[in-house]
Amino acid sequence: MSKPRYRYAHQQERKRWAKVVAAGEAYCAEPVCKMKSRWIPAEWASTQLWHLCHDPSGTIVIGVGHRKCNLSEAATRGNKMRGRKGSRKAREVRTVRRSTNRWVI
């Protein structure tokens, strides 16, 4: 089951924006666009290649965006909220000692 904020009201808002996408008048609203062009092709109107973009609070729709851009923004925002910095490779490796005197890395 989907999250409550992606149910009826979100689906209705997406239908309204689908008309703009179908008309070929949609541009990526994310602050950082990962695609070559901000334009969202009209043939994407009935696909999942575009998403509704929200402000940082996640409550106000700011427009439409490429799926790639929206998911990247969400990951960046989520990592900041969790206090993560960098990738796993950048984090220190912790060593745990078991009762069998074996080391696990």
Characterization of this structure:
This protein has one domain (4-93, 98-104). It has helices at residues 8-22, 67-82; strands spanning 26-27, 39-40, 50-54, 61-66, 96-97, 103-104. Helix content is 30%, strand content 18%. Strand 3 and strand 4 form a beta hairpin. The chain contains 2 helices and 6 strands. The protein has a two-stranded antiparallel ribbon. The model is unreliable at 89-98 (pLDDT under 50). The chain is of the alpha+beta class.
Topology:
Elements: H1 8-22, E1 26-27, E2 39-40, E3 50-54, E4 61-66, H2 67-82, E5 96-97, E6 103-104
Antiparallel strand pairs: 1-2, 3-4, 5-6
The overall average pLDDT, rounded, is 81
Helix content: 25-40%
Please write the string of helix (H) and strand (E) elements.
HEEEEHEE
* Rg value: 20 Å
- Decide which structural class fits the backbone: alpha+beta
The number of distinct structural domains comes to 1
Mind describing the biggest β-sheet? 2 strands, antiparallel
> What's the shape?
globular
Distance between the termini: 38 Å
Strand order of the largest sheet: 1-2
**Count, helices:** 2
Estimated share of beta-strand residues: 15-25%
Tally of DSSP β-strands: 6
Ranges where pLDDT stays below 50 over 5 or more residues in a row are: 89-98
Keywords:
105 residues; alpha+beta; two-stranded antiparallel ribbon; 6 strands; 18% strand
Give a nutshell description of this structure.
The protein is an alpha+beta fold. The chain has one domain.
